[in-house]
Write a structure and sequence with these properties.
It is a single chain. With about 280 residues, the chain is mainly β. It has a single domain, classed as Neuraminidase (6 Propeller), CATH 2.120.10.30. It contains no helices and 25 strands. It is globular.
C-alpha cells in the first residue's frame, strides 16, 4: 500500500500546544469514489490527491471545481502527493509490484526510481521542480532529493529510518528521522548547503507538507501543524461527530491545510481554511 502517514502514541509535548476548531472545514469527496485523500495544495488553492473506485487507486487534480483523474500509463495504481505553483505534480505509482515516483507537467510523465531501491515515493515538489521523497532498500527507509535527474541521499547522520516529505521554495528540505537505536521520530530540516537540524517536540511525529513560512503539518496521535519559528504545536481533528483518524497532508502559504479523515468506515478528504 502506498505510504500515506503513520500514527503514533502521543507523549508529553514540550512546546506550547492547543487543540482548535477555529477554522472552516470542507469535505472533499471525488464523485463516485469509495475513498478520497487530499494530499497537496498550491498557492491558488488547487488540490491534488488520490481516490479509490473499488478496483484501483487513481490520482486527481481539483482546479476550478473540476476534477481531473491522473493515471500513470501502464500503472496499477496512482496517487498524487504534491503540486507546485506551476502546476507540476509529483506522486507515486505501481508497476509489476514496485512503486516508483513520477512528475507530470500536464503533458508528459517523467518516472524516476532511486538507483538500487526496492520502492521509491515522490512526496513534495517546489517551484524549481526539485522533488523530495523516500525510498526503501533491503528493508531500510531513506530520504532523497531528485533535481533535474540527479539523486541526493537525505539521510540524517547517525539515524535509522528517514523520509523527506517537503521542500520549500528556498530549497530547504523537511522530513522525519529516527535517531539510531531509538524508536523516536523527530523533525529534520536540511539547508540547501547540506546542513541538518533536528527538532524534538516531545512526541513522535510524521511530517507531511510544509510552506515557505516554516510551518509543517503531519500526524502524531492527532493531526498537527507546527510552526518552527515560534515552536508552536497545534493539534486538530475534523469537527464532525463520529469522525476520527484525521491526518494533515499539505499546507500552502496562506495557511490552508489539506488532508483526510475517517467517518462511517470511509476516508474523506478535507480543506481547512483559517478564519
Amino acid at each position: 500500500m502506498i505510504f500515506l502517514c503513520r500514527v503514533f502514541t502521543l507523549s508529553i509535548v514540550a512546546f506550547a500546544a492547543s487543540f482548535v476548531y477555529a477554522a472552516t472545514w470542507t469535505t472533499i469527496d471525488v464523485p463516485g469514489a469509495t475513498h478520497t485523500l487530499v494530499c497537496g495544495i498550491d498557492s491558488a488553492g488547487d488540490l491534488v490527491g488520490g481516490y479509490g473506485d473499488g478496483t484501483s487507486t487513481h490520482g486527481f487534480v481539483l482546479s476550478g471545481g473540476i476534477y481531473t483523474t491522473i493515471d500513470v500509463p501502464g500503472a496499477l495504481g496512482t496517487v498524487v502527493y504534491g503540486i507546485n505553483d506551476l502546476g507540476q505534480i509529483v506522486g507515486s505509482a505501481k508497476k509489476g509490484g514496485t512503486f516508483f515516483g513520477f512528475v507530470f507537467d500536464g503533458v508528459n510523465f517523467t518516472e524516476f526510481s532511486y538507483p538500487g531501491s526496492d520502492d521509491t515515493f515522490g512526496f513534495g515538489i517546489n517551484n524549481a521542480g526539485q522533488v523530495v521523497g523516500q525510498y526503501s532498500e533491503n528493508g531500510h527507509e531513506h530520504g532523497f532529493e531528485w533535481d533535474k535527474g540527479i539523486f541526493t541521499n537525505l539521510d540524517v547522520p547517525n539515524s535509522g529510518w528517514n523520509a523527506a516529505t517537503g521542500i520549500d521554495n528556498q530549497s530547504r528540505t523537511f522530513g522525519t528521522t529516527t535517531p539510531l537505536n531509538t524508536q523516536e521520530l523527530d523533525i529534520f530540516i536540511r539547508s540547501p548547503q547540506g546542513d541538518f537540524r533536528i527538532i524534538n517536540i516531545g512526541t513522535n511525529v510524521v511530517t507531511r507538507g510544509v510552506n515557505d513560512h516554516k510551518v509543517l503539518v503531519g500526524a502524531t496521535a492527532e493531526a498537527f501543524k507546527f510552526n518552527i519559528k515560534t515552536k508552536t504545536l497545534v493539534t486538530m481533528e475534523f469537527p464532525h461527530v463520529g469522525s476520527h483518524t484525521t491526518s494533515c497532508m499539505g499546507i500552502n502559504n496562506s495557511g490552508v491545510i489539506v488532508g483526510f479523515y475517517k467517518h462511517d468506515k470511509k476516508l474523506h478528504g478535507f480543506v481547512r481554511t483559517p478564519n
